[in-house]
Amino acid sequence: MYKRQGPDGVVARIGELIETALREHGVEPLGVGVGVPGLVDVRSGTTLFLPNLPGEWRGVPVAEPLTRRFGCPVSVLNDARLATLGELHFGAGRSGASTFAFFTLGTGVGGGVVVDGRLRLGPLGAAGELGHQTIVPDGPLCGCGNRGCLETLISGPVLIGKGAWLVRCGRAPILRERIDGDLERLTPMDMVAAAEAGDEAVREVLVEAARFLGIGVANIVSVLHPDAVILGGGLARLGGLLLETVRATVKQRVGMFPPDDVRIELSVLGDAAGVWGGLALARDPGPRMETKGHE
Length: 295
Prior knowledge:
It is a single chain. The chain is built from nine helices and eleven strands. By secondary structure, it is α/β, with parallel strands linked by helices. The chain has two domains: 7-81 and 275-290, 2-Layer Sandwich (Nucleotidyltransferase, domain 5); 98-267, Nucleotidyltransferase, domain 5. Strands 10-9-6-7-8-11 form a six-stranded mixed sheet, with helices on both faces. It has a three-stranded antiparallel sheet with strand order 2-3-4. Strands 1-5 form a two-stranded parallel sheet. Strand 7 and strand 8 (118-120) form a beta hairpin. 43% of the residues are buried.
């Protein structure tokens, strides 16, 4: 309902949810951190381009109406960068990683980059779009306009689409049985279970996607040589199959230096990384983020 009302309705709903949480806990806000799925002017709290929302939210003020509503500073950040900020303050950053990349794997592929303890945003807040690096030249068309982006090769919708195709053509009998033939029920986790139970074609699809991710991770390792690469989001639940394939691919493809000292691991914050990032942003909206065009 709120999406049909446009940006004003969505922002109003965000305000209502915040008010409900405040009432339940009996507190007054000192600051609010909000994540949005796209580009945002972090200084003004105005969205620039949200490709997956109706109208694309070009020039929509988010921080200003919420600031008026709550009487406290409101900061807005891309949702994947917000999750990266959560990792910096409460996850990987607390376990000795001062330079790391964070991949968010879900309905799309997002990410963020931390260099020397600071979240790198760039002049438009767009630094860290790890899902939009080209992996396959002239590959599938991406929503960003490019072809062969990592997001077109490993994401929830991509895996579900391939799993559904395998069911339709009779190559995934265990998966078909698991979902009772109802493709609307199919999830990536069903595919993992079917692969582990013996659906070899399903396993091949998952391994191929993990290899593509491994190539993307290897690119970042070669360019940045970080302390760690963290994998988060819903698809991180693919677990061992994902992690082992990514690690093996990085070891195979990074040849300029031994990559063994780069930790590649799943986020300890799980799906809550963005929530923790919102807390960090509300508490400290600027000092550990780099927004300048140049250092």
